[in-house]
């Protein structure tokens, strides 16, 4: 194996072992301290309002406009920030309750449930301009899922006919992935299928006892031989993998070898049974044979919507998914129309039809995510358990890959692991949001929320809304409006990449900050509808949902106010610090539980400081879309080995924050406002440390210079094509594109045929 990945930085993550799949059971002490943290936060805020704000107005009946404005605005800022801290503590507490109550379903129950299973899962992997190696890992993690009927479809959204050699090569490599995986799995799949078939032939029926004369020991040995062959195949695959970075290491160790270790555990049990001169009953043996067929039997294919003119070509992940989902369950006839291909329903089946099988469940999976072996099995079992009939979406919110080679990837991964806990807790209060990196979805639920429109003569079906760039959040509200619920499964079964540099992180976080405000009216409509139907609505659910969608807005503007405005020192109080203290202590505890450092609370605070302009930009984009109605383009997070340059403004503003904080320290020290001095000093130190660690001083210079060059450079405008003065077509009859004329018509003809005696114009064919 080769190891030649991104250069490891000082202060990066050395630990590569992933966290446990099942969360540790929290102690009673931890739960009690969590409740105490909530009480202290609320109590400290109330004490601050009474002892500082109200007291100031009582003691100074005529404080003046400026002090009144400062008091009210400071109280608003502190209240919103305290509210977000309280929502963190509440969601965290819900997660602790869920982790304490969760019991993993035994493997035998899963095998029994799916032994005669007839439903299917279709895995949809939307991909645009991804590195083939990244997509390959994702497809393999989906293909090795243990499930009876599984199809993996790569929704390739790259332009189908690139002209640049590099893009042509990348596209050819990506297109070949599905076939390569299918070919690699064909041999173990054929062996597993044959072993199951011969086992069934040796028994009159799947549930029958051993046939007369059959030897239990021989039957057990045959099963052991099949499991040994499967393990050896997986271990050989792992040995042949090229490991270049921590993600590749995770893929080999947890995806491939994780499955091999599971099968080795079965082998251990079977060998023990053999040593004890016993064996599983025939029904259990058949289930074990079936498990091998579930692992290796998978159908893989690639679908490119941009090859078809009748499908939406909107440049976002949601419409890529919608295009394929709209085709499922039907046969389609390809029809050539003036140089393009359209899909029409096939009324008379033909061999060359495009057949898109339907399935009960969909699994949407980002092209940079990896699933552990029994993701599908456990989540589908959950959906089919009693009481979950109205659950539309279930998932395990993704965790970060361990062993990040850069400091910024490590700290961004820490925030990802914290978000995993919060999403688990939001489910406790019925406030789950779909996180789009991975999810199992009931297809019938999507049919409930579909919107149909006609564009250019073709029917476009929208299941997952693309009105904002956070399509998963908006779809969560749509599903709730139609009576569906969402649940996060309380285990770690999915992992996703974290941006390794500041430039790619800017793209991701700016997209995350955009759209929440636009969805709030939909939430209000949903709540009104549920209230009219006399459904129970938990107040905590409403608070958590509003905080999830709008907290970036008020936290960003609130922090901006605290940084920029010189508030009167009389408004400062230790109570504000005490109200925030439980939040930071609990976050530090959660970080330590996730394998990070308690001191990362300071790094995350500084991290959020330098991301302040990014979050503000996303919020402002939401406001722009709300005012203009223009959709914000979806921008994918770059996933490349080299560094992504950040826009100059997002590099310069963190330096401005440091400079202004230093100015504030000097100014307030002169006036004796020591509370402001301490706050500004903390901001200056942490922001500067994070600039050096996460952006880099030399990288800052490079990005600013690149920004200036790009701003000064003006691309030459292409020369406009001369408009034809007449409808004369300078071609022979044999050269005329008669198909385009018959299909599209001629827009020039529509413009030129107007009034006067000259209305009749001829098209000369020379």
Automatic annotation (TrEMBL):
<feature type="transmembrane region" description="Helical">
    <location>
        <begin position="542"/>
        <end position="565"/>
    </location>
</feature>
<keyword id="KW-1133">Transmembrane helix</keyword>
<feature type="transmembrane region" description="Helical">
    <location>
        <begin position="71"/>
        <end position="91"/>
    </location>
</feature>
<dbReference type="InterPro" id="IPR029044">
    <property type="entry name" value="Nucleotide-diphossugar_trans"/>
</dbReference>
<dbReference type="GO" id="GO:0016758">
    <property type="term" value="F:hexosyltransferase activity"/>
</dbReference>
<keyword id="KW-0808">Transferase</keyword>
<keyword id="KW-0328">Glycosyltransferase</keyword>
<dbReference type="GO" id="GO:0005886">
    <property type="term" value="C:plasma membrane"/>
</dbReference>
<feature type="domain" description="Glycosyltransferase 2-like">
    <location>
        <begin position="362"/>
        <end position="585"/>
    </location>
</feature>
<feature type="transmembrane region" description="Helical">
    <location>
        <begin position="644"/>
        <end position="665"/>
    </location>
</feature>
<dbReference type="InterPro" id="IPR050321">
    <property type="entry name" value="Glycosyltr_2/OpgH_subfam"/>
</dbReference>
<feature type="transmembrane region" description="Helical">
    <location>
        <begin position="677"/>
        <end position="697"/>
    </location>
</feature>
<dbReference type="InterPro" id="IPR001173">
    <property type="entry name" value="Glyco_trans_2-like"/>
</dbReference>
<protein>
    <submittedName>
        <fullName>Membrane protein</fullName>
    </submittedName>
</protein>
<feature type="transmembrane region" description="Helical">
    <location>
        <begin position="601"/>
        <end position="624"/>
    </location>
</feature>
<keyword id="KW-0812">Transmembrane</keyword>
<feature type="transmembrane region" description="Helical">
    <location>
        <begin position="32"/>
        <end position="51"/>
    </location>
</feature>
<dbReference type="Pfam" id="PF13632">
    <property type="entry name" value="Glyco_trans_2_3"/>
</dbReference>
<keyword id="KW-0472">Membrane</keyword>
